[in-house]
Design goal:
about 15% helix, about 45% strand, four-stranded antiparallel sheet, eight-stranded antiparallel sheet, alpha+beta, about 260 residues
Length: about 260
């Protein structure tokens, strides 16, 4: 099974020709991508707020989108960090709308045939990967629940802890860590399963995450706590600037930036 589960397909819409939804199993976070010949008029790689609506019902989900220009002159909108609730909403909908805020632009209603079947296939992919990584399979039966992060993962490692991660000569770190979750919610295992290879950074990050109660335990249909698995992505960019010193004493100063996906 793959370290990422993705569903994609063509849609019939004047502006949107393809749509995909993907997730790293155990992250609880989803990425939605729309593509079309003239989907937006934003500069390449620019970012801006959007609101994702399902069947025009309920409260739209606010998120940050990246506006892309494709090699074939097409356009794309990538919306990351959508919560698990968005996948559930996606499974119950047949129509999707995207409002690009500030520019007051709406990507017209997109019809999504077979969304329930598609999301079920995505859930199967997620369950298979988590089980392969050591999660108890009973949690994926009707009535069971997987391990769920107790707090926002963005706060699991403080800035001071992030600065301790070694770059090992690289200009950035990007690693997906598999977290084994004991029946009491404690992280008792951690290893990198995807991303750029940087064993030193992964080992240090894992040391900061082990033995912490970061998850609500997974449970089987009978309500008994069982072993679960979660994932955590660490991304850092090291930006090197030149300090405003005299030319004879000018040394590079490293500034660490972080973001989580």
């Amino acid at each position: 099974a793959p370290a990422q589960c993705t569903l994609s397909g063509a849609v019939s819409h004047p502006d949107v020709t393809a749509i995909s939804i993907s997730t790293t199993p155990g992250s609880g976070s989803y990425t939605l991508i729309l593509a079309g010949p003239d989907l937006h008029r934003r500069p390449a790689a620019s970012q801006g707020p959007v609101r994702v609506g399902f069947d025009a019902a309920g409260i739209p989900i606010a998120s940050l989108a990246t506006f892309l220009h494709l090699k074939d002159d097409g356009k794309a909108i990538r919306i990351e960090g959508l919560p698990a609730a968005s996948a559930e909403a996606f499974s119950r909908t047949s129509r999707l709308t995207i409002d690009i805020e500030r520019s007051r632009t709406r990507v017209g209603t997109i019809t999504i045939p077979g969304s329930a079947t598609a999301i079920q296939a995505l859930k199967t992919c997620i369950a298979e990967q988590l089980a392969e990584w050591g999660a108890d399979r009973t949690q994926f039966s009707p009535g069971g629940t997987p391990a769920i992060a107790r707090t926002d993962p963005d706060g699991w490692l403080a800035p001071a802890q992030m600065r301790k991660l070694p770059f090992d000569g690289e200009d950035h770190i990007d690693a997906v860590l598999k977290l084994s979750v004991a029946p009491d919610g404690v992280v008792d295992g951690c290893e990198q399963v995807a991303g750029l290879e940087n064993k030193s950074a992964s080992d240090v990050a894992c040391g900061m995450l082990r033995k912490r109660v970061l998850f609500t335990p997974a449970r089987n249909p009978a309500g008994l706590a069982v072993r679960g698995v979660g994932t955590y992505r660490v991304r850092m960019i090291r930006r090197v600037t030149v300090a405003s010193l005299s030319p004879s004493d000018r040394r590079p100063t490293a500034e660490v930036l972080r973001s989580f996906g």
